[in-house]
Amino acid sequence: MKTSILFATVAFATLAAPVTPAAAAPNTAARVFAACAVNQYDGAELLATQPGSEEETGVLQEFADRGCSASPAAASLLRGALAEELFKKDFGAVGARPRRETIEIFRVDPAELETLDATTRRRVDLIGFATCAAASNVLKTAALLKTDPGSASEAALVKEMEPSFAPCLLQGERLDLGKSELRGALAEATYRLALAYTLDEEVVVTGTRDPARHIVCRSQENAGTRLRRNVCLTEAQWQVRDRDNEYLAEDFTWRAMQESERDTAIIMQEQRALMNGGN
Known about the structure:
Elements: E1 2-6, E2 13-15, H1 21-40, H2 44-47, H3 54-65, H4 75-90, H5 110-113, H6 118-136, H7 138-144, H8 152-161, E3 175-177, H9 179-198, E4 202-206, E5 214-221, E6 228-234, H10 235-278
Parallel strand pairs: 1-4, 2-3
Antiparallel strand pairs: 4-5, 5-6
Helix pairs in contact: 1-4, 4-9, 6-7, 6-9, 7-8, 7-9
């Protein structure tokens, strides 16, 4: 059985200039908001809302009424900062079992996507891009969330991930993206994938630009153990892995045949030697 846990499309991303001191205030406000929302309340309900929706606005207003002020940070930065806090609280690491029984994430009907305004669709597009990008770098994105925003270690990890962004892009599309916004989107995507990794069935996380336009999480044997774990890759990446596995299987079969033929030849030589010795 396949379960779809996210729909989003992907857009071309380019990093804007480094964060300036003027931009630091919204980032700080977002992190203060996230700590307040997670530590004093729950916070998870924000990620269950669709970006740009009335529900999202309502949840943010509810948190503001409770004393978790978010001004002057944008909603996308608030979601990203909150996703980082929730990832630490609910998982701690990709592959870890969730620390709560129920986790909700937003869903978008593909038909509904066409009706969204440009600003909302861009935000949904960004989550789709980040989900695709995180699937290729899930351990690195998890490590990214442990770095300080704007730090050299953060920049180094993003640079390492950039070559694998290509399968998530459409030629000609462009989405100017600041580092803080990219980090926030990757944080929410990592949280979603951390959930997908814990499910006991094949999971489809749609939103990539590969031919099938989705990420598939499959239960795989963990080498050297009897345990199994989910691995999440794009359809194109699964095709490469499946092809590599086929090559390995063919090579294993060929080597086994070679060894069998060699063993057979040795046995025949020994039998002939015994027969000649008997004569």
